[in-house]
Amino acid sequence: MLSVLMIVVFVLGYMAIAFEHPLKIDKAPTALITGMVCWAMYVFVPGIDHHIVEHGANGNGGLYHHLFDIANILFFLLGAMTIVELVDAHEGFAVITDKIKTTSKVKLLWIVGFLTFFFSAGLDNLTSSIVMISLLRKLVADKKTRWLYAGVVILAANAGGAWSPIGDVTTTMLWIKGQLPDVPQMIVSLIIPSLVAMIVPLIILSFMLKGTFERPKANKDKEHQIVPTTQFERVFLLILGALGLISVPVFKTVTHLPPFMGMMLSLGVIWAITEVLHRKKNHETKSQLSVISILKKVDTASVLFFLGILMAVAALQEVGHLDVVASFLQEELGNIYAMNMAIGILSSIVDNVPLVAAAQGMFPFEGPGISADFIAGGPFWEFLAYCAGTGGSCLIIGSAAGVAVMGLEKIDFIWYVKKISLLAVVGYVAGAATYYVMHVI
Description:
By secondary structure, the chain is mainly α. It has one domain (about 1-220, about 225-440). It has 22 helices and no strands. The chain has helices spanning about 1-20, 20-25, 25-45, 50-55, 60-90, 95, 105-120, 125-140, 145-160, 170-175, 185-210, 230-255, 260-275, 285-290, 290-295, 300-320, 320-330, 335-345, 350-360, 380-390, 400-410, 415-440. The longest helix is centred in the first third of the chain and has 28 residues, at about 60-90.
């Protein structure tokens, strides 16, 4: 009974987040309440004791296990946001935005789409989303117009991350755990469907958008007032920040340590370098360009929203609801393409990571008698990487990139459903059809 009530609490919390603006309650406290209440209810599910809640049976699962995985994401997000804010404080992004001269809405649409797509593959979809939102704030003044481009950022970031072993956490999981061991083969198989998933929505939007956009005037807000910097400092911090972000997947590949450690290492190095760079300046100027000052600007509410929503999903995973869903899909659908399409749509409602983890646990990929569909590098795992990566775009809280953009730009859930969700579904289906034609027909 309690396990069913957990679903009710999750749905109610989900709806409260969706109707954040009519209710006039910020999504962060709603997410925190939902996550903590779900875990509090889990404690009283029959057969659960505190030892299992904390540590899990035989060291698997449990609150501490989930908290470690969630902390990885939160510290990664905190580090990336700080580096991006530091580059922004030094006017580093002006080096890029000054090169974008167009004021055409359609031209900017394609520039933003392709920049995000390839940034996401080289960095990851979460980091690239944070970077692109910072760029958009320098380019587009009108909030609703910027929201539309932010929606494109989510679509392009998730599509760009799906075909790269370091672009999306689910693709990384499938690569590291052995389901997708051949990276060149994975890229060749998935890059075209992923491009289609981004390009189709861009084509549709190109017919809908008209005219030009207005660039923002200089920000006079005291909290975000920019201290004048030299051209050398702007370029240097942009390069330094970019190298710091790019080094994160390299650090992970070489050391196999969690990505947040590479992000924190990058932050520490950049922090130390900026301290040396500004050591001769007066105290007032130096303090405004230091990481200590930048940390005050980081959107902590978004980080707490992340914590709440991921904790809620973890509670549903721990009680077994996501495994039930995976079993149901296998029994009722059977066909690997239909199963993965369903998993992709579900990943827009709950996080794609536990869904992919459930699939990895259910379907062995090595040993005698394994179907050709499920062997390492087989079509089930390739298509799962595509579907789990791009399906989350259908709703704004269905992916890490979407949650980050929602927090940074304060995008309304219902607005996203009205303006972006259908585009995301059309792109998702078009990319899936492309994969099917390429590999089956």
